[in-house]
Amino acid sequence: MNYFLMKAGLDFFIAFGVVLGGSMLAGIGSVFLLMPPTSMMVNTAANLKIWAIVAAVGGSIDPMRVIESNIMEGHLSPAAQQVGYIIAAFLGAHMGTELVRLICKGTS
Fold it and tell me: Contact at 8 Å (CB) between 96 and 15?
């Protein structure tokens, strides 16, 4: 259980960091290109959300294979753990997106 919570926490923060870091750098880049940074940041955060989840859970289709193979064999615990990791990564990406929206609130 301790390993599960540690990995889920890391997945959360990785996804959060991908969204927050990517949108902040997009905002900096848009300033150099004379574009409105807040709208660029909000759009980039929304577009990076799914990629942040993929990066956090392993960057490939392997977590889906783990779920599929374990369910087919009747082992639900590893599949449930993978779903938990994906949920933790989704929550991190979603919180990152909402933080960017909060930062840019009222300026778009």
Answer: yes
How does DSSP assign 28-86, residue by residue?
HHHHHTTS-HHHHHHHHHHHHHHHHHHHHHTSSSHHHHHHHHHHHHT-HHHHHHHHHHH
How buried is 61 (Cβ within 10 angstroms: 0-12 exposed, 13-18 middle, 19+ buried)? exposed
**Both structure tokens of 40:** 């660029």
Residue position matching structure tokens 């929206």:
101
At 93, the amino acid letter reads A
Q: Which amino acid is at 47?
A: N
Q: How far apart are CA 76 and CA 72, in angstroms?
A: 9
Helix axes 76-103, 37-57, angle to 10 degrees: 170
pLDDT single digits (tens) 19-65:
999 999 999 999 999 999 999 999 999 999 999 999 888 866 666 77
Amino acid present at 16? F
Tokens of 3: 């390993």
